[in-house]
Amino acid sequence: MVAVTGNGANEDLRALFGQSTAVFASLAGPRHVVETASPAFFTAIGQDGAGPGDALVDGPAGFPALLDEAYRTGEPQTARDVQVVLGAGEHERAASFDFTCEPRRDATGQVIGVHVIGVETTQVKQTQRLMAEHRALLEQIARQAALGEVLDGMARSIEELAPEEVLVSVLLADADGLHLRHGAAPSLPGFYNEAIDGIATGEGVGSCGTAAHRREPVIVTDITTDPFWDDFRELAGRAGLAACWSTPILARDGALLGTFAMYHRTPRVPEEADLALARVFAGTAALAIERHHIEEAKAAAEERARVAHDELAKAVRAEQELRADAERRATAAAELADRMSAAATAQAVKPHPELCQLGGAQGCTAPAEIKIADSWGDAAWGCSTHVEEAIINVRSVFIASEELGGLAAYLSR
Fold this sequence. Notes:
Elements: H1 7-17, E1 22-28, E2 33-37, H2 39-44, H3 63-73, E3 77-86, E4 93-105, E5 111-120, H4 122-142, H5 147-161, E6 167-173, E7 179-184, H6 190-196, E8 199-200, H7 206-214, E9 218-220, H8 233-239, E10 243-250, E11 256-264, H9 272-347, E12 370-373, E13 379-382, H10 384-393, E14 398-399, H11 404-411
Antiparallel strand pairs: 1-2, 1-5, 3-4, 4-5, 6-7, 6-11, 7-8, 9-10, 10-11, 12-13, 12-14
Helix pairs in contact: 1-9, 4-5, 4-9, 5-9
InterPro entries: GAF (IPR003018), GAF-like_dom_sf (IPR029016)
Domain GAF: 142-299
Pfam families: GAF_2 (PF13185)
């Protein structure tokens, strides 16, 4: 399963699976003399230079026995994942084949030889393993694994499964799209990752900076001679890097998310399978990064909502406290008004009482120093404490002492 669909994805899959090598031979007799064979057959069984009329005297482990068994029993025989070595020198490579041996019969039904059909499965199996790892990465993304975990796992998977040594790096674009930050590079030296963390995006800024700037792949096959690497050549040399192929990681709307790079320790030109691999996993990285951005935005929105909720709760509590305070003031004002009314009645008998008249039900033993009045004509004498309480809580109350001593006592209390 890949992260993209359509003709481009199908072409990438075909490139990854590649062209399988098929071999064929028609063998006669118990010595397995070659009557006809495809040119690749002799290479596959390790008998380069042999041809029609030659008997097979050797082959991959188990292959001669497979031929003998098919000839002796007259039953088809199959061997899977037969390991062979193809090519020589720097072109030598390990390969695996599936072989099927079908008995040949004459008109009477007698077994007279064996037909051999073999198909190379090396790249198919390699790609199947890569796709299995790819599916695992998609599952990680689906369950919202940490971005660093996904990218690091992706890099390690490609490095472990790629036919040739490759070192994978993922750089993440800053929000402004002008710089690239370290995302994952498990096999690159720490000093190298630190040095390129924060590089600018721009023409000629290595493979990755240029790919990010152009929004298209940039293939540098030889770092020692490419002008894009003028400012980083010494750094790459210390890290043992000789080639770098970088693919931009783009969001669905075309925005830059980062770069996906494949480094090599020797100068190397990519094959179509390499480019397909880069496209497939750049798409996977894009999916992971976009999901990460969505989760970050969601978390930020939730935090803003939490802060707003807390502020609203504070405002509600403050409003409730103000209401409660207003109610307390209203109650106090009513009580003080009642006291003043009672005091006014008492003054008819004694105009200037000795003790404070504003102490409520419990009374007040402080001297009555200050006279206050309200707009309804009620007046009362009280101590400085209760007079101040009345002035604060009852709007219409004012100091009404006829003697300056009352006001002076209030002001100098």
